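Example record

The entry below shows one chain as it appears in the dataset: sequence first, then C-alpha cells.
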Amino acid sequence: MLQVRFCAFCRLDVGGFSFCPKCGRPTEILEKVYSASPISEVDPNSKSASLAMWSHLSPLLISAMSFVLSFFAVGFLLIYFAWVPTFLILKSNKSDDFIASNAKEAINLQIDLIVIFLVGAIFYVVFGVLTLGIGFIVGGLFSLFLFLLLTPFVAINQIRASKAAANGRRFTYPLLPFRFLK
C-alpha cells in the first residue's frame, strides 16, 4: 500500500502536496494500491495493439524516408502522403474502436502538419514578394529554426504514441491546433 494525497473537491491525485495546486484546498491522505503497469484497454499482444502502434509509427517512417529522399524531388512529395498507411489501417479496421481512435489521432497530427506547412509556405512566398526578396532570407531562417524545433517534438510524440498503443493504451497528441477527425 502506498499513501497518496487526493483533493476531494477537484478529484485529483495531487502527489505529495498538502494543498491542491488547482484549487488551493487542503488534501486528504488515501491509501492506494498501484499496479506495476498502467491499465491497458486491449491486450498488448493482440492484433489491435499492433495495428494501433503501426498507425502512429508508419507516418514517422515515411517522414524519415522523405527526409532521406529530399535530395531528389520525390522526397518533398512523399511527406504529403504520410497519412495514407494510417488511413488504410483505419478503413480496414472500422469495427475496432481502439484502432480507430489511435488511427484518427495519428491522421489528425498529419493533417495538422500539412496545414501548418502549407500556410507557412504561402506566408513565406507572400512575405518574400512583398519585401522584394528580403523576406525570403528572413523567412528561410525562421523556417529552419521552426523545422529544428518542430521535428524532434513531433518525432518524440510519435514514438511515445506508438509505445502507448503497443502497450494497449490510447494516446492523444499534445498541442494539436485542430482535430479534423473526431
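Notes for this example: The helical segments are 47-68, 73-78, 84-92, 97-130, 134-166. The longest strand covers residues 2-7.
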